[in-house]
Specification:
Strands 3-2-1-4-5-9-6 form a seven-stranded parallel sheet, covered by helices on one side. It has a seven-stranded mixed sheet with strand order 11-12-10-13-16-15-14. Strands 7-8 form a two-stranded antiparallel ribbon. The protein has ten helices and 16 strands. It is an alpha/beta fold and 349 residues long. 25% of the residues lie in helices and 23% in strands.
Length: 349
């Protein structure tokens, strides 16, 4: 069976990456691409690298245009997807790449986003430990999926195995992330101009205000941490690379836990996973190793002097961080092979 797909927000970074992946997916037909201000223009005017899709013209984003497809992917700015989802009730599978359907808590939504609150959908990170199983089980047959925030899923994947196994303390988590500016979207922002970021590293959303914090807390609570016990200091830093996240996360070691038990927690969680891979002891990833791949690579260090575990994880924010996670989750929901259209291989140099 071939599934017809519509992608909204197709002129943006996330929408373009979803299209790039789906263009090589053997089980889908990209039938419709939509945008707002860019409607009526050729897709390749905004995504010149998508040569196989040069015949597409961006249409207006509306429920009427999006209806009638097997799959609709909403790659819209935060707060804009919810206005369409109720009107797409007849679409068998809707995937939101924005934040509108990620959070379960209205209070968290109000505090970090604001605007109308929408119900949480199945979270599109299949490998996350959840209630003694994996999030994958909740995606099987799902009709509504919330793709993750790239920073949030990277930190959550880094720490959830330790939470689930009880080998780290969720009350003292510190995460510092080097991130590429493509995660902020394609809209013009003066602080993201090349002249502002080249040769510089710029922290932002410092001091507990980043919007991905409640998403991380939600994922770690699902892994087994008491929600009231989770304390995380989260600091992203924009660095001059177009794509990528290198997340360095640390937490206190739980009492009485051995080094072997710590490493076993991550090996047990990800040892049989295709797209989340634990590196050998003493090895740590580079963002260059995951460029263009739906792969999260991570390394673990145990610092007994400080009494902490440090996890370093690298992802391509536009692939495993967003579009790849969405397609991987789509595959699971539709009963297709999970890796269909996706690759573990990066692009080098």
């Amino acid at each position: 069976m071939t599934y017809s797909v519509a992608v909204s927000g197709a002129s943006g970074y996330a929408g373009g990456e979803i299209l790039r992946i789906l263009a090589a997916h053997p089980d889908v037909e990209i039938r419709t691409v939509t945008a707002h201000a860019n409607a009526g223009q050729p897709l390749v005017a905004h995504q010149p690298h998508l040569r196989s899709l040069a015949h597409h013209t961006l249409r207006e984003t509306s429920p009427e245009v999006l209806a009638g497809h097997d799959v609709v992917v909403l790659a819209l700015p935060h707060g804009q997807s919810g206005q369409y989802t109720d009107a797409l009730a007849d679409v068998p599978l809707v995937i939101d790449a924005g934040a509108d359907h990620r959070l379960e808590s209205r209070a968290d939504w109000d505090a970090f986003y604001g605007g109308p609150f929408h119900e949480a959908w199945a979270y599109g990170v299949p490998e996350l430990p959840v209630d003694g199983a994996k999030q994958r089980a909740r995606l099987v047959g799902a009709s509504r999926i919330a793709a993750p925030g790239c920073n949030a899923s990277t930190v959550s994947l880094s720490l959830a195995p330790g939470i689930a196994a009880g080998v780290i303390d969720p009350a003292d988590i510190v995460s510092v992330l080097a991130v590429g500016p493509s995660g902020a979207g394609k809209s013009l922002k003066p602080h993201l101009l090349g002249s502002e970021i080249l040769g510089s590293a710029n922290p932002y959303a410092v001091g507990g205000v980043h919007r991905h914090i409640p998403e991380i807390r939600q994922a770690l609570a699902a892994a087994g941490a008491p929600a009231d016990d989770i304390r995380i200091t989260f600091t992203p830093v924009i660095v001059p690379m177009a794509r990528g996240i290198l997340a360095t996360s640390s937490a206190r070691i739980a009492g009485g836990v051995t080094d072997d038990e710590i490493r076993a927690a991550w090996e047990s969680a990800y040892g049989d996973e295709t797209f989340v891979q634990l590196l050998p002891d003493g090895s740590f990833p580079r963002t260059a190793d995951v460029l263009g791949a739906n792969t999260a690579l991570m390394g673990i260090a145990i610092d007994r002097t400080a009494g902490r575990v440090t996890v370093v994880a690298a992802v391509d924010n536009l692939v495993k961080g967003t579009a790849g996670a969405a397609v991987q989750s789509m595959n699971i929901a539709l009963g297709l092979p999970e890796d269909r259209g996706l690759t573990v291989n990066g692009v080098a140099p």
